[in-house]
Amino acid sequence: MPPPRILPQNRRTIKSDLPLAISLSLVVIFFVASGVVSFRNARFLMDDVLRVAHTHEVITALDSVGALMKDAESGQRGYVITGDVRYLEPYTRAQSGIADHITKAETLVQDNSEQLSQFPPLRAHVAAKFSEMEETISLRRTIGYEAARDLVGTDRGKIEMDALRARITEMRDVERGLRRQRVASMQQAYRTTVTSGIVTAALGILLSLFVAILLRRAAGARREQEWLQAGKVGLAAAIVGEQHMDQLCENLLGFLVKYFDAHAAAVFTRAGEEFRRVATYGVPEGSTTPLRFGPGDGLLGEAVTRKELIMIHDVPDGYLTIGSGFGRGNPRHLIIAPAVTDSTANAVIEMGFIHPLDKLSLTLLVEVADQIGVAVKSAIYRENLQELLEETQRQSEELQAQSEELRVSNEELEEQSRAIKESQTRLELQQAELEQTNSQLEEQTQMLEAQRNDLVQAQVTVQAKADELERSSRYKSDFLANMSHELRTPLNSLLILSKLLSDNTDDNLTAEQVNYARTIQSSGNDLLVLINDILDLSKIEAGHMEIHPEPMPLSRLAGDLARVFDPLAKQKGLLLTTHLDGTCPEVMETDRQRLEQILRNLLSNALKFTEKGRVDLAVSKNVEGRMVFAVRDTGIGISEEHQRAVFEAFHQADGTISRRYGGTGLGLSISRELARLLGGAISLESTPGQGSTFTLVLPETFQGQSSPAAPKREIFAPLPQTPANVEPASAVERTRYVPDDREALVSGKRTILVVEDEEFFARALHDMVHELGFQCLVSTSAEDALLTARQYLPNAVLLDVGLPDNSGLTVLDRLKQDIRTRHIPIHVISAGDHSRTAYSLGAVGYLLKPVKREEILDALKQLDARLAEGMRHVLIVEDDEVQRGSLAKLLGSHDVETVAVGTASECLEKLKTTTFDCMVLDLTLPDASGYSLLETLSREHAYSFPPVIVYTGRDLSHEEEQKLRRYSKSIIIKGAKSPERLLDEVTLFLHQVVAELPPEQQKMLKKAHNRDAVLEGRHILIVEDDVRNIYSLTNILEPRGAKLQIARNGREALAALEKTKSDSGTKIDLVLMDVMMPEMDGMTATREIRKEAAWKKLPIIMLTAKAMKNDQERCLEAGANDYMAKPLDVEKLLSLIRVWMPR
Amino acid sequence: MPHRIEDLEIRLLLEAIYQKYHYDFRGYSMASIKRRLAHAKDKLACGTISHLQDKVLHDPAIMPEVLEMLTVQVSELFRDPLYFKVIREKVLPHLHTYPSLKVWIAGCSSGEELYSFAILFREEGLEEKTMFYATDINPDALKKAQAGVYGLDRIQLFTENHRKSGGKSSLSEYYTAAYGGAKFDKSLRKRVVFSDHSLVTDQVFAEVHLISCRNVLIYFDKELQNRALGLFKDALVRKGFLGLGSRENLRFSTHAEAFDEFARDEKIYQRRGVL
User: Fold this and answer.
1) Closest residue of chain B to A1111, computed from CA coordinates
2) CB A772 within 8 A of CB A816
3) How many helices (H) and strands (E) does chain B have?
4) What is the pLDDT of residues A808-825, one digit of tens each?
5) Closest A-chain CA to B92
6) CB-based contact (8 Å) between A411 and chain B?
7) Strands, E, within A554-643: which ranges?
8) N- to C-terminal Cα distance for chain B?
9) Are residues B99 and A961, on separate chains, in Cβ contact within 8 Å?
10) Which of A498, A526, A666, B112 could be a cystine partner for A533, CB 3.0 to 4.6 Å?
11) 3-state class of A362 per DSSP?
């Protein structure tokens, strides 16, 4: 780590402040110096003045000494002349004061030795003078004027006086000289002072100017500094954080362009050796700005190599282009700045300007280059790190994969070695065993040889016996054939002859003889029939009867039989009917001759044993797809104990019968055998005296022989997806019969939208709404209702379900799906019961037409009450008091009000008076079960039925869950984590927004509004186990008018289809079949359905999550008509359904 | 250049397998596929991958074997016992609040994970309301899973794992040992739908509460991983759970936003609610 440096801006500040500081201190020093000079000058002046004054004082003092002496002298003279004592007064005053004055003067000149030296002579003169004057005065007084005048006349006084004067004058001159000298020096000092003042002032002004300039310059520098600083801070803010390279460069560029006022810019960052363009600004599409360059490539590369900023002025045209909405232009100046960190350029910024860039900006650019470089570098690092992390993740996965594979090979190896070991031991064991068996085998071989010999012998014997048997069987057949032939030949002549006899052509026989002949003929006929029957039976038993299946129209068979037996029936006065059931195919495949033989037998029996009444032949197809031929008569019937015996050969119900009715008694035996040969059976139901029903059941297609290849199932290419009969929802023209308030709406007053197409009723509702003080809007169609609701956003809606263009439920749904209108409470009025759908779609109330006026008023009041409150209400129904409290606490919040009740009756009480947004229901209640409560709520309209969240403490069986799912979308089992989930679900419910549904479902919902003529009223069976898919399919198909049935697996689907057979009230037109389901998957179920003839043509569309071609082929192979891959595309699914829906 | 050529051969072979047999290995991780194919090449005595391709195209009977070798089918009961311990202790309390449950074992291989879950859910009293969907692309593996027979020598490890996962019963209650194998009780399969389903090509088939897809994504490349995770995202209910293998995570996936980390070390994620 480098040692911490002083941040450059600080260093810079100090540098720029230094001259300022120096100049400021100079100013201070200057003023101090000039003050000192002035002070000194003043002091000099002052001293001089004082000294001059002193001199003056000295002079004055000397003058006053002189004056006093003069006074004394004049006083002396006056006295001398006049002798008047009064004249002595100045003298005495001078005499007493002179010493002081002299002393004063002396003290004044204390510092001047020269002057001081003058004082003793001065004093001497004064003393001498005074002594002279004293003498004079005393002379005058004592002697008189003359003596005094004489004395004066001696000039002693005058000499003294003159000397004194001279001395004083001398002294004064000295002092004057001194004064002159001092005045001169004072003048000198004054001049000096003035000069220094002027100099100081001039210097001061100069200095001030200098400082001002410095200050100005410092302020400018500071501003620049601040700009630089702001630039750096702004840049730091733009590139701070862990930004992705692109983001970083975008931000960086955005900032730089704004801060430098550039017109075009681009950032290139290092990517290995190259530089890659990451972000641009103002560079138009298709500009020639390079996407990448290497070091040394062009100016950009040059900047990288030189690691310094390059500036170009007066860029030639076409060099770089700035693009804007108005066109393109060329920048005049260009800056290429590399961002260098640790002597490596990590990024290059190129900026184009229309104006030249000032130096400051350049400085900033140079200074931030480092910062940018670091940011880019760290972004590069981050990217590398991210890549490395991903690489690590990939490697870790790869390692895991390798270890998995190693495990596999390990296992394989282990298995192999185990197998080898095992086989080795097995081999050893086998060897030992082999050795042992070898010896045993030898023994056995011998034994076997012996046995084989025995066997061969036995075989020979058996063969001989078999041959013998075959022979004897052939003998028997031959005998029978011969016998019949032998019998028939004489019988034939007998019959012919008896016929001839009975015809009595020669008319020579008596009536009685003719009668005999007829009897012979008839007996002969009977005998022939008996012989034929015996032959047939023996043929069947010997296996010689051959079956020739052929397609046979059933109607013809019935017609032929009717034609044959009709005369006989008429003859006996019986009614013979044949009936072909609607379920019958037109053609069945069997041996026609044999079938006719059976039926003829049955019919002739029936006619034979029926004296009066009727004989019916009914042909139908049973549930197993087999043909049923029932011959019903109203004859003598057969008692139970004889019923089995009638099918035995040579047997009739009663020994006496043959006598009464004739016949061989072999017919039924033969019929039974023939039926068996045809792959069917005959059964008998009979009540003696009332009649019998013989039922022959045969396969529709003869099974004994290999059936011809099943007709190739056609694979229909999906028809072109015609829009079928669906007409696009044309915007219904808004026809209003009922005038409403839309032209005169007053804002702030509550508005109710009435959606009702019936004019009279709409008018009535309109009036009632007014009565309660609301404004009223009236729409008469669904489309208009939606428009109006969206435009005016009414406070509440009264909605009729039966509207001319679309169902009111669709309006409800669409209003609830629209974020703008979903909060509007909607009360539904309908002629049909859609209450559950309406409530589940979010209606607050439901009224069934015809409605009473009071009911509507109540509904309106309820809406009113609801409007008054913005709270969400949750009803909690829970028997345990503690839990009730805690649930209320859990769910309640500032906008959610909870009401908690403990019993079902309380709950009903609440729901009668109030509507709730959501209800949390415990299933165990003291007075009723949760189920019965829910059922009551769904059945009775006296109660509002909010969406229910079931919250229960016990586990639910599958059936219970299914039952609850009808009423509740969300079921929560109490447990450690249930409060968390409950809160989640309730919150979701109360704030349900469209966005909650996945976008595909939203799209589905949006599309699912038009009813579809092809689907209207058609029954579709949805076989699907996933709730979510059922929900979306229901949402697609139900609004289009299809009736849906749900089966959760293949087995339930089969059961549902089976039910359509027995219950004519149900039917299914089309099946949507999921593939992956529990219990029985879609493939198996489809195959099962196709096994049933009745469902061969039932359209089945398979919905598969598998997308491969062969998966879908498998669907078709299983018998589906078409398939569709999940996720479901609404349009495609609808057109598939339209294509396959039978018309 | 041999590597380049081999890479090309591998791509051609995978394309061929996709075109002819509709098994899409084209988005699998190349490194793994390379090793698997090298293995297959040796085992089927083919000199080159092209030779292998020739065989695969002209001898459909060989495809199951190749498929077996391309898909890694290895697991154990209660593999990574901690994973199951967390499922048992932290995830199941959430699942208890649903009246009925659907669990998707994606890439169930030969069924060890499925039986682990079936036993776990039975022990925790959830089995009766749960429907399991066990899917894999390999029909042979599905058959094995449906049979539920494992080598006796592995049972010791299974028992140990089961115990470590916090098992409340003895594992021996769930299998019958005979003829060197242990056959797991068929009542465990009563509520299981076995189905051939490919995370590469197929779509979501049901809304489920828990998906366990372990050590499958490691064989996929990034794009395919994203596709598979997208399917899981669409299939899960709000607040449903997704369990991945120990080396797999959602960090770099495009669907990372849709999940919350639920148990970091065990790689269990929870689908975010919409609110």
Assistant:
1) B22
2) no
3) 10, 10
4) 888 888 887 776 777 788
5) A977
6) yes
7) 575-580, 587-590, 614-621, 626-633
8) 55
9) yes
10) A666
11) helix
The structure tokens listed for A557 are 């068979």
Bridge-based pairing of strands A1122-1125 and A1100-1104 is parallel
Question: Searching chain A, which residue's CA lies closest to the CA of residue B36?
Answer: A405
As a whole number of angstroms, the distance between CA A498 and CA A517 comes to: 5
Test B201 with A1126 for CB contact under 8 angstroms: no
Rounded to a whole number of angstroms, the distance from the CA of A1115 to the nearest CA of chain B is 14
Alpha-carbon distance A923 to A930, whole Å? 4
- Which of A398, A973, A1025 is nearest residue B29 as measured by Cβ atoms? A398
| Closest chain B residue to the Cα of A988, Cα to Cα | B275
Reading the block at residue A1050, the tokens are 């293949």
CB contact under 8 Å between A972 and B203, yes or no, is no
Residues of A in contact with B217 (CB under 8 A): 397
Question: What pLDDT does A302 receive?
Answer: 80
Q: Give the 3-state secondary structure of residue B59.
A: coil
Q: Give the confidence band of A729 by pLDDT, cuts at 50, 70, 90.
A: very low
Taking alpha carbons only, the member of A623, A628, A646, A658 closest to residue A692 is A646
Query: In the structure encoding, which two tokens stand for residue A1044, read together?
Result: 């849906």
Residue B239, phi then psi, degrees to nearest 5: 70, 20
Interface check A426 vs B, CB under 8 A: no
Report strand pairing: A1122-1125 vs A322-324. unpaired
Rg (C-alpha) for chain A, rounded Å, is 70
**Chain B residues close to A1081, C-beta within 8 Å:** 193, 195
B126: its two tokens: 């959830």
Q: Compute the distance between CA of residue A1021 and CA of residue A432 in angstroms, rounded to an integer.
A: 67
Structure tokens at A320: 């770089």
Nearest to B252 among A393, A401, A958 (CB): A393
In chain B, what's the furthest Cα-to-Cα distance? Answer: 61
Given a cut of 80, whether residue A851 has pLDDT beyond it is no
Q: Which of B74, B93, B202 sits opposite A976 (nearest CB)?
A: B93
Query: Which pLDDT tens digit goes with each residue over A1037-1086?
Result: 887 778 888 888 899 999 888 888 887 777 888 999 998 888 888 999 99
* Interface mutation target, options B74, B132, B200, chain A, most CBs of A under 10 Å: B74
Give the pLDDT confidence score for residue B227 in this predicted structure. 92
Tell me if A616 sits within 8 A of A638, measured CB to CB.
no
The structure tokens listed for A1123 are: 């398939």
d(CA A347, CA A277) in angstroms, rounded, equals: 10
How far does A1109 lie from chain B, in Å, by closest CA? 8
Give the type of residue at B54: D
Mean pLDDT of chain A, nearest integer: 78
**Chain A partners within 8 Å of B262 (Cβ):** none
Q: Which residues on A lie below 8 Å from B74 (Cβ)?
A: 404, 407-408, 411
Q: Pick the closest to residue B250 from A397, A385, A404, A247 (CA basis).
A: A397
pLDDT tens digits, one per residue of B86-122: 999 999 999 988 988 999 999 998 899 999 999 999 9
Mean pLDDT, range A25-48, rounded to an integer? 83
Token duo for residue A49: 């003045």
pLDDT class of A319 with cuts at 50, 70, 90:
low
Tokens of A117: 């030296």
Higher pLDDT, B210 or A859: B210
Q: What is the ipTM of this complex?
A: 0.71
Cβ–Cβ contact A964 with B under 8 A: yes
Report how far apart, in Å, the C-alpha atoms of A320 and of each of A265, A316, A335, A352, A686 are: 10, 9, 12, 8, 110
Terminal-residue alpha carbon distance, chain A: 86
Give the ranges where chain B is alpha helix by DSSP (H): 2-21, 30-43, 49-58, 63-70, 81-86, 92-95, 112-123, 139-147, 152-164, 222-235
